[in-house]
Model the fold of this input.
Amino acid sequence: MNVQVRRMVSAPALVLAALMMLSWRAAAVSADDAAPANAANSGPQAVQWSNKVYQAFQQACREKKPLVVYFHSVGECKHCTRLETETLTAPSFHVLADRAVFVRISMNDEDEKGNVRQLMNQLGVESVPFITVLDPSPSQIVERGHVLGYFPAEAFVPKIQALLDLPRPADLALTTPAKR
Done:
């Protein structure tokens, strides 16, 4: 697993600006997200992927949850297709639904200002599929780590689970002894 744990994302203001621009573009392209999960379903709630990046960022901040960002390419990436059809639809992945806020960004949806590329550069995304787990706050964005490439569910889910199990940076500050 290619992981860079606790990497501070450089220039968080630029990342936030790119998130806002991508969100506005996504809102113009698609008026709705995935349908809400059926509460009567006895199985795990399905992961709801949003394409509204900035709204997902705000939700993650508000709910104090990690933000799982999935970078993919539509139609051109066989590993993205396999990840989406085999791994991200697996019941074992959907168990993670309430642990984070999930958003997907297609490399094919670049806007005129280049915000997709800017965000990818800020996060160090060089190829897809690329899934990163971020700890967002209004003042900083910290990457817990990322998973690069296709993995079957039995290998992928434990990697994401391990990243979601890491404590938030604010939680780390609470456990650090005070200096006297």
